[in-house]
């Protein structure tokens, strides 16, 4: 992931002229050195001690791309030493640790935000704008399918709750953004299908209750071979007057009711407008740009931890529901 972040900075002129990489930290310094060479970073401090490198470089910002288990210590160190911190998702491995990081950022007077890059792509922005337009009436449901046979190797294949914690959080966060509603409760079932190359929990089905009687459902698997969906999931967004479909790639289609008679009402196609090529449709680059803009003007980035913890709460409520086989409410689960 560090390569993805550095590539976004290097290939975005505004970021390249704004951000100067002053240090790279890795438990294996040779890996950091290789990364520095790959991106022609000749004047950087390299080390295995985060605190030592931050003290030496007097960095303003810490980009946190460590594995989830190390996140709390890394973010805490960065905040304690005066850095604004932009973290990979998930923001924590427990809701308690996530809440603690939100409080630490508040005490430090620094911004801690999370890379939910999926909500910074044009497709998700188009969904939100279309729902907000009211063309298909009041939102009643969002339904997402995610099925990919992903052979990562490494730590993911040994993770507990791997689909929910490492991937479904993208769709959960995007659905919360598109709906612009509050998640209230969830019922979830996790499984590890026959033939799975993951240790456990590679598939999940979840039903979320959002405010204003909106339902969000998620069906997903990371060991489903034969018909991969988009990484963004396939979406069906239903309103009181019509439905929007998105394949997660480039295909949008929408229809709304225009007739008032008959068993099946007459429909008409509806255009799903393209968005202008603004600064919030370029994935990682847009997340980083939003983060830096917030530091400069004192605003809150869209994925600040105090908001993103609501998406994390969805994940952990789903995990609890899967373990207990009970409906779980999300009340009092965030700071």
TrEMBL record:
Boundaries of every GFO/IDH/MocA-like oxidoreductase domain copy: 124-244
Gfo/Idh/MocA-like oxidoreductase N-terminal domain location: 17-113
A Pfam family matched in the record: GFO_IDH_MocA_C3
Single GO MF annotation: nucleotide binding
UniProt-listed SUPFAM superfamilies: Glyceraldehyde-3-phosphate dehydrogenase-like, C-terminal domain (SSF55347), NAD(P)-binding Rossmann-fold domains (SSF51735)
Domain of life: Bacteria
Signal peptide extent: none
Entry-linked PANTHER family: CONSERVED EXPRESSED OXIDOREDUCTASE (EUROFUNG) (PTHR43708), OXIDOREDUCTASE (PTHR43708:SF8)
Name of the molecule in the record: Oxidoreductase
High-level lineage: Bacteria, Pseudomonadati, Pseudomonadota, Alphaproteobacteria, Hyphomicrobiales
């Amino acid at each position: 992931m560090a390569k993805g972040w550095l590539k976004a900075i290097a290939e975005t002129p505004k970021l390249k002229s704004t951000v100067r990489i002053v240090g790279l930290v890795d438990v294996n310094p040779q890996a950091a050195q290789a990364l520095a060479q790959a991106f022609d970073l000749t004047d950087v401090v390299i080390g295995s001690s985060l605190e030592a490198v931050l003290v030496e470089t007097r960095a303003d910002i810490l980009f946190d791309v460590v594995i989830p288990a190390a996140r709390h210590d890394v973010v805490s160190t960065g905040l304690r030493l005066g850095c604004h911190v932009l973290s990979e998702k998930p923001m924590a491995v427990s809701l308690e640790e996530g809440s603690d990081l939100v409080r630490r950022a508040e005490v430090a007077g620094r911004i801690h935000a999370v890379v939910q890059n999926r909500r910074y792509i044009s497709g998700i922005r188009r969904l939100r704008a279309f729902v907000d337009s009211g063309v298909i009436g009041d939102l009643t449901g969002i339904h997402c399918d995610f099925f990919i046979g992903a052979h990562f190797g490494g730590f993911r294949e040994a993770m507990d709750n791997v689909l929910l914690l490492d991937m479904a959080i993208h769709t959960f966060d995007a659905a919360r953004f598109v709906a612009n509603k509050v998640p209230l409760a969830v019922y979830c079932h996790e499984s590890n299908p026959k033939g799975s190359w993951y240790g456990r929990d590679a598939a999940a089905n979840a039903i979320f209750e959002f405010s204003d009687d909106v339902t969000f459902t998620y069906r997903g698997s990371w060991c489903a071979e034969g018909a991969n969906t988009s990484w963004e999931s396939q979406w069906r967004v239903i309103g009181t007057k019509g439905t929007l479909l998105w394949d997660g790639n480039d295909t949008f289609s929408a229809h709304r009711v225009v007739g008032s008679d008959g068993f099946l009402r007459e429909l008409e196609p509806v255009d799903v407008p393209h968005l202008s090529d603004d600064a919030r449709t370029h994935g990682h680059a847009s997340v980083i740009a939003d983060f830096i803009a917030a530091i400069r003007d004192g605003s809150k980035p869209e994925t600040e931890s105090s908001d993103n913890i609501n998406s994390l709460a969805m994940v952990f409520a789903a995990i609890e529901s899967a373990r207990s086989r009970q409906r779980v409410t999300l009340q009092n689960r965030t700071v």
